[in-house]
Amino acid sequence: MNPVNKAIWYIERHLQSRMSLDDVARSAGVSGFHLLRAFSAATGTSVMRYVRGRRLTEAARRLATGATDILTVAGLAERYSGDDAGARIPGQWQRFRSLEQCIARGLGDVTYGVCYNADDEGNMDYLCGAQVTDFSDLPIECSRLRIATQQYAVFWHGEHISAARSTWDAIWNGWLPQSRHTAADAPLMERYDQRFDRHTGSGGVEFWVPLNE
Questions:
Q1: Per residue in 61-87, pLDDT tens?
Q2: Distances, alpha carbon 103 to alpha carbons 73, 79, 131, 160, 193, in Å
Q3: 3-state class of 29 per DSSP?
Q4: Is pTM beyond 0.90 here?
């Protein structure tokens, strides 16, 4: 068995475990430098991008409905251009934390990051929010968003939140083109539950991608 086949066998056997390039290279009996180039030549992708893509494929076997009814989210919204969102969104979440205390929702500790109103130039609105039962008695500075019932593919990002771009890249450029699905013109969502540690950025987050029926 050649090193690339050994690497793929190892990856498939350890798909749900933590692994690094060095782990995979050791299993194949070659250096990381060797495996990087051999794997790319044989598959057209890098080792760790292949790992992320396989994990996404497994995760996306679980398709979910976005909500049993309309999802009502309240919080702090801002408009971004295509190239400044990554740098500014963390600050938006920090500002939302003080507002969050004023949102009496009684629906658990789940919060949402919602991308919507995107245009052809790559501009979008981003809402940091929490689910509410209705929009009454909210602070005046709260933004309000109703998300219609929608089929979503749900992906688990288990790495630090700073590595989210790599998972989004694997979704858009790996999983989605290879699936039988197409993305719908509807809000994208990040879902942060009790596993996510807002202080460290670790613990994992779900990415929800809207799909056409």
A1: 555 554 445 788 999 999 998 677 777
A2: 10, 21, 9, 27, 17
A3: coil
A4: no
